[in-house]
Design brief:
globular; 5-stranded antiparallel beta sheet; 228 residues
Length: 228
Amino acid sequence: MALSSARKAAMAAVAIAALGGVSFFGASASEAAPGPAVHAAPAPAPASAVAKRSVSAHRQAPQVVTRVIGKGRVDGHRWSVALEFHRTLPKGYTLPTLPDGASAPGTSLLCQRMYIGGVRIDHQGGPWSDCQPVTGTNDPGPAGEMGLWGLHDKGLDGSRLMVADPEPDVAYGVITLADGHQVKAATVTVPGTTYRAWAAPIPDGQTIAAVDQYDSRHHQLTHDTNWR
């Protein structure tokens, strides 16, 4: 269950494409004696070999890329947060329906996988809960979202996780708790994409005084006191 920002609650779905490949070339040299060294120019690769390498690189590109955003222990339980990027819409997933009856746009899927004590948050909603459709690897839609998540009472009590999908210039977030303790979390990016997040645990019984975000030069970018 989750208590997220007003913007995230308002977004039913938002509208990811390809990762890179690999290439290489070879060269050979020979020397005659006596006399100066003679170097042979590298022979161009046959078209069939180039095509074979291209197909091989395409096949090696992962269809699902997962990046751990944060992990640790809170209240004696292990916690973790990961972003899971599906290059194409996975089998069994259906695009959400917009208010006008049309399907939400999206060619790929971005999922936020959150666990506390081995239990996935929002698992009751099925395998695609906490997932949103995106278009390409650089869809700006998810940026700017922030939410407070837990296993009980919509993230209002118990051990909780704060997860932010920040704007591109955010390098890290700092959560200041009511008792003055601060938790810092660095932004992590899914390889080959612009999708990023930071995550931090909130112990049971603690309330949040402020959430601040900073750039790589430690300049404060946002200050939010609307969490509890």
